[in-house]
Amino acid sequence: MLGCIKESFKLTNKYIILATPLIIFSLLSSLYILFSSHGSLINLMIALVLFTLMVAAFISGWFFMIRKCIKEPEIDEPVLLIKDFPEGVGEYFLSALGLIFCTFIISTVFILLSYFLGMKFIGSIGISSEILSKSMESFESLKAMLLSLNETQLLKLNAWNLLLFGTMSLTYFLVMFYVPAMFFKEKNPLKAYLVSLKDLFSRKFFKNLLLFLILLVSYFIISIFTTIFGLNILMHFVFTLINFYYLVFISVLICYYYYINYVKCGQLFDRRV
Question: For residue 270, what pLDDT is reported?
Answer without folding.
Answer: 36
